[in-house]
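Annex B.
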Amino acid sequence: SAEFALSTQARFLYEELKKRKIRVLLTREVGGTRIGEQIRETLHSTANVEMLPTTEMLLYSASRAQLVGEFILPRLAEGFVVLCDRYVDSTFAYQGHGHGLDLGVLQHISQLATCGLRPDLIVYLDLDVGVGLARRHHAYQPDTGELNRMDQQTVEFYKRVRQGYSDKSDTGELNRMDQQTVEFYQRVRQGYFEMIANDPQRWRVVEASPPSSVVYESVRNEVLPVVDEWLNDSSESESGTD
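dTMP kinase: predicted structure tokens.
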């Protein structure tokens, strides 16, 4: 998957909606609130290498519960469009399919954490695992879209890289969540495909291998019609109550 590219695309979309005078807010998981950001530090800290998958899942869910209750639901009630950089489906993909936790249990916990709130639209940026790892380690040239020598390595090569070198978080520090194997990310990607197949109306898949500007054109083509439709429906509802 292309989880690492989501923040860039979410920011592009947020800025465009703002320019169109749409009341929009951008938040993120894990984090988005004062409590959530503290949980983020715990999850990402390399000092916590012994953290169990169940602990990890519960911490993500706790952060999500705070974000939904403190921020997302109140802002939706005020009429804002809320963009969230990752949400509950990441837990199903990473902790469920990636770590092998029971999906039924995750469903119950996620229902509690989100108060049953589901997004109107989910954009999944899809990327081959090998290319994704190359990008994480600065081996890919996204501005030109060209592959360099490092992109011509085998999956085994990237597995060795992954085991011996960790990516950096947005604080510049090593990130515990980046210390996974190639096989883990392959399971995560397959998990996303299964969720997409089970709910195709809600999901949009965008190929994330082109340069970010090209990817964004695909993102906006998927998202803007949905936002426009939602705004039109809201306007009609308001006029109907006058």
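Residues 28 and 84 are 5 Å apart (CA to CA). The two ends are 46 Å apart (CA to CA). Further annotation is deferred to the next reporting cycle.
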